[in-house]
Design goal:
Layout: H1 64-87, H2 98-121, H3 133-147, H4 150-169, H5 175-192, H6 201-217, H7 231-245, H8 249-252, H9 254-259, H10 264-281, H11 297-307, E1 313-320, H12 323-336, E2 337-345, E3 348-355, H13 358-368, E4 370-378, H14 379-384, E5 391-399, H15 402-410, E6 413-417, H16 426-436, E7 438-444, H17 451-462, E8 467-470, H18 476-484, H19 492-504, E9 507-513, E10 518-520, E11 523-525, E12 530-534, E13 537-542, H20 545-557, E14 563-569, H21 576-587, E15 592-599, E16 605-609
Parallel strand pairs: 5-6, 5-7, 7-8, 14-15
Antiparallel strand pairs: 1-3, 1-4, 2-3, 9-12, 9-16, 10-11, 12-13, 14-16
Helix pairs in contact: 1-2, 1-3, 1-10, 2-3, 2-4, 3-4, 4-5, 5-6, 5-7, 6-7, 6-10, 7-10, 12-13, 16-17, 18-19, 20-21
């Protein structure tokens, strides 16, 4: 049975109202609020992005709250300046993505810090505690490392790592500790770049560190009345030093001089340091005047780079390897291309390089250790391809496994892969919506925990003139149902209502394996038990996958249904899909079953009933 053979469904139960901010049909239960998360829910929203930024109790205390505030404000600042920073990106490659890469890197860092606070908020009573500064800065550095994008994002992640190392080890996080952190950050960033060039973010970072040191050396600013150096003084000095160094980059690098712009990565760092001042003092720095549009000379810079025969591909991957293997990898990649940056440590690294032979760069990583999250971008295509005409309408869907990618793409959707334990950030959803290149977009998050992330992405893209409707699908099977009735030729409002209705008429279930003994809505489960969750609640506890799946199906179909959708993960035994299909056929008349292989996904079995 072909699921997408027709755009029409057997019957639409009802038409549900929606608005373009979110569509909230009655059959789709609201996502858990941030204030009262469901048990076991992953908190993926940033409370501090809702104008709730907290300021540490004392301007001279650098604590976990200050780090949380800094990350939140930095993400907002980079989001506000993203387009302008993208526009002045001419070095090392004029591909116009520095602002976006910095934003995505910072978003990953902020996400990691929020996870630390979320973990502490789940503990109440006498055992309740607040995160330590060391917890927050280590999470920030790790989040930036695994989420680093592009040359600029990779260097930013190393700057944050350098600061983390010093602040986590400091007995007191005063101004002297911040000064050491800034110096360590600049030093590590230089070491990470195979061939450092002045006039880049490295220059701006060094200027910030030097200004911070000078502020402590000055006798009138050396210490506060308590004998501790002032964090606010050092932070402000670092910002002012970076801001003063930024205009000088135009004359330090030929590519910037030809284009008449400052270094894009350096400008991003100035924004990040500016909100560090705000995080520790509660006072916003002076807003820089809006930059003029990029002069025509920037096009000449892009052409020059192409004429110079720069590498055709950007290759980025995370790598698990020891220090000795990474040293050999650096030497090998340096011979393959340029813009080599390797950051990280303690067995986990982020590798970035521009090469002509992308396969050789990946093979070098395989020889060094275990590369994953491999991303390859073809510069040539991005530079010479003529602008595409915008499509009228597109669907962007988050899919939980590789197996559903092809299915959703066949149905005409632009997809975002959500790997187990790696939910997409709002920046990735924004990128996917832009990649769809349409005037109207229907967004299907397919996960209750992604609703707020998807709403943030939709709101950002609306400011760019794209009409976005968010259908809050809570499971992949609801997204499949919505895609099945999608018809791009009808009016946008009608299409969204039909897709919303199809999703709302689809009940969903999944199997999971209990990790420990726990109380559930169906009773007490033991570690290793198979749990059957219906519409998000545990309804069945069993010991056998097939038996539990049949019980869940029977319970759901007792209320009626016309079509069963099964999505099997790669851990499910061969023949299970056929066995469940035969069970439905034998026990429930006039009910069709469709079976898909979902590949590696968080839930071993997804079930949809329409």
């Amino acid at each position: 049975m072909s699921r997408f053979s027709s755009g029409n469904r057997s019957s639409i139960q009802r038409l549900l109202s929606y608005n373009e901010t979110t569509t909230a049909p009655g059959d789709l239960a609201p996502a858990p609020s941030a204030a009262a998360p469901a048990p076991g829910a992953n908190l993926r929203e940033f409370p501090l992005l809702k104008e709730e930024a907290q300021v540490p109790q004392s301007p001279d205390d650098l604590d976990a709250v200050a780090v949380r505030t800094w990350c939140s404000l930095a993400l907002a600042a980079l989001g506000a300046e993203r387009e302008e920073i993208d526009a002045i990106n001419v070095y090392p490659v004029a591909d116009g993505d520095t602002g976006t890469n910095l934003y995505l890197t910072m978003e990953s860092a902020a996400q990691a810090v929020e996870a630390v606070f979320a973990a502490h908020e789940t503990v109440t009573g006498p055992a309740a505690s607040a995160p330590l500064l060391s917890d927050a800065v280590r999470a920030m550095a790790h989040g930036a490392l695994i989420g680093a994008r592009g040359n600029s994002g990779t260097i930013l992640s190393q700057l944050l790592r350098g600061m983390s190392e010093e602040l986590a080890a400091a007995e007191r996080a005063d101004g002297a500790a911040l000064r050491r952190a800034l110096e360590r950050a600049a030093s590590l960033a230089y070491e990470a770049v195979a061939h450092p060039v002045e006039g880049t973010v490295l220059t701006v970072a060094t200027a910030a560190a030097q200004a911070a040191a000078s502020s402590l050396a000055a006798s009138s600013l050396a210490a506060s009345s308590s004998g501790a150096a002032s964090v606010s003084v050092v932070a402000r000095a670092a910002y002012e030093g970076a801001r003063a160094a930024l205009p000088q980059t135009t004359g330090q690098l030929a590519a910037l001089g030809r284009a008449g712009v400052v270094d894009a990565g350096g400008r991003g760092l100035v924004a990040v340091l500016g909100v560090l001042v705000e995080a520790v003092t509660g006072e916003a720095v002076a807003v820089r005047a809006k930059a003029p549009a990029l002069p025509p000379a920037a096009d000449d810079c892009s052409a020059d780079h192409a004429d110079e025969g720069g590498p055709a591909f950007e290759v980025i991957y995370l790598l698990e390897a020891d220090d000795a293997a990474v040293d050999r990898l650096r030497h090998r990649l340096d011979g393959l291309g340029d813009s080599l940056v390797v950051v990280g440590g303690d067995g986990l690294w982020n590798v970035h390089v521009h090469v002509d032979d992308a396969g050789a760069a990946v093979e070098a990583g395989v020889e060094a250790g275990r590369p994953y999250r491999i991303r390859i971008t073809h510069f040539g295509t991005d530079r010479v391809a003529p602008p595409r005409e915008r499509a009228q309408r597109a669907v962007v869907a988050v899919v939980p496994g590789e197996g559903l990618l092809e299915l959703c793409m066949e149905a005409g959707a632009t997809t975002v892969l959500a790997r187990p334990g790696e939910p997409p950030a709002s920046g990735e959803l924004v990128e996917a919506i832009r990649r769809a290149h349409a005037r109207e977009v229907v967004l299907l998050p397919n996960d209750a925990d992604l609703r707020h992330t998807a709403a943030a992405a939709a709101q950002q893209v609306r400011t760019e003139g794209v009409r976005v409707a968010l259908i809050p699908t809570r499971a992949a099977v609801q997204g499949i149902a919505a895609l099945a009735v999608h018809e791009p030729d009808r009016r946008f409002d009608e299409d969204v209502v039909a897709m919303t209705s199809a999703a709302g008429a689809t009940r969903y279930a999944e199997l999971a394996v209990a990790e420990r003994q726990s109380w559930t809505t169906a009773g007490v489960c033991q570690a290793g038990d198979v749990l059957g969750l219906i519409d998000g609640d545990v309804a069945v506890i069993g010991t056998d996958v097939a038996v539990t799946a049949r019980t869940v199906l029977d319970r759901m179909l007792s209320a009626g249904g016309e079509l069963v959708t099964l999505v099997l993960g790669d851990s499910m035994p061969e023949g299970l899909g056929e066995a469940l299909e035969a069970h439905v056929r034998g026990r429930h008349l006039a009910v069709d079953t469709v079976v898909y292989r979902g590949g590696r996904q968080a839930s071993p079995l997804l079930i949809g009933i329409e």
